[in-house]
Amino acid sequence: MEDLILKRNPTRKHPLLGLTVLVVEDSKFASDAMRLMCLRSGARIRRADCLCSARKHLKVYRPSVVIIDVGLPDGSGLELIKDLHAARPRVNVLLGMSGDDAQQEATTNAGADGFVAKPLVNLAYFQTTILSHLDSSAQVTGLQEVGSQSIEPDQIAYQDDMSHAATLLEAQQDDTSLEYVTQFLRSVATSAGDMRLEKAAKNLSRATSQGYVPRSIVREVLGMLQHRMDQTAAF
C-alpha cells in the first residue's frame, strides 16, 4: 500500500500541509467545495464517488484523513466508516458528512471521530474540524485568521449534478433508486443553498416514503432541474 502521508510541516496559512484527504462524495458540487478548502489549507485531496471506488482506492493508498458522505449510490457511508474504524492501522482522522444533522449521531456510533455538516462553505470550520482530531504535536501554533471566509464551488459542477439527478430520476425503476436520487437532490440543494429545489426534493421524499409518487411531482422536479441546467448560474 502506497503511503501518501507526507512529512508534516504545517504553517499558519496552510495548517493542513502534509495531509492527504480522501473525500467519499457523489456530488461534484460538494466535492469542488472540498477541493477548494483543501487547496487553501495546504492538503492534498483525492475523491471517490461511491463505496466501491473508495474501497479500491484504499487498497492502494493510505490517506491521513477520510471524509465520508452518508448517502452514496451503492450503499450507506456508515458501512465504510465502520470498516475504517475497525481497520489496523486506522486512519488518523475519520469524519462522517451529511446535510442532515440527524446523521451526526449515526456517524459517531459507526466509529467516526467527528462530523462535517453541509453546506460546506466556511474555511475556518473545515480546518478546525480536522485539526481538532489531530495530535497536538502535528499542529501549528496559531492559525492564520480566516474569519468567516467562504468557499464558492464551481457552478458548472452544480449543473453537472442537476444533469446527473435528471438522468437518474427519468430512469428510476424502483423505490430504492427513487430513494437514492431523492436524497442526492436534497444533499446537493442543501450544499448549494438552493431552497426551492430543497423544498421540492423534500416533497418528493415525503411522497416516496408514503409509497406513492404522483407523476406531477416528478415532472415538477424535472422541470426545475432542466431550468438549472439551462442557466449560467445555478439559481
Structure, explained:
- This protein has 235 residues and is an alpha/beta fold.
- The chain folds into two domains: 2-138, Response regulator (Rossmann fold, 3-Layer(aba) Sandwich); 155-230, no CATH class.
- It has nine helices and nine strands.
- The chain has helices spanning 28-41, 51-60, 77-86, 103-110, 123-131, 155-171, 175-192, 195-209, 215-230, and strands at 2-3, 20-24, 44-48, 61-62, 65-69, 71-72, 75-76, 93-98, 114-117.
- The strands form three sheets. It has a five-stranded parallel sheet with strand order 3-2-5-8-9, with helices on both faces.
- Strand 8 (93-98), helix 4 (103-110) and strand 9 (114-117) form a beta-alpha-beta unit.
- Helix 7 (175-192) runs antiparallel to helix 8 (195-209).
- The longest helix is centred in the last third of the chain and has 18 residues, at 175-192.
- The radius of gyration is 18 Å and the shape is globular.
- Residues 2-6 have low confidence and may be disordered.
The CATH homologous superfamily name of the largest domain equals: Response regulator
Q: Major β-sheet, in short?
A: 5 strands, parallel
Low-confidence stretches: 2-6
The overall pLDDT, averaged over residues, is 88
CATH architecture call of the largest domain: 3-Layer(aba) Sandwich
What's the number of structural domains? 2
Cα distance spanning the termini: 43 Å
Counted beta strands: 9
Structural class: alpha/beta
How many helical elements?
9
Shape assignment: globular
With strands numbered from the N-terminus, the spatial order across the biggest sheet is 3-2-5-8-9
| CATH C-level of the largest domain | Alpha Beta
Radius of gyration: 18 Å
Strand content: 5-15%
User: Which sequence of SSEs, written as H and E, runs from N to C?
Assistant: EEHEHEEEEHEHEHHHHH
GO biological process, one term: phosphorelay signal transduction system
Protein name: KDP operon transcriptional regulatory protein KdpE
Keywords: Phosphoprotein
Organism: Roseovarius albus
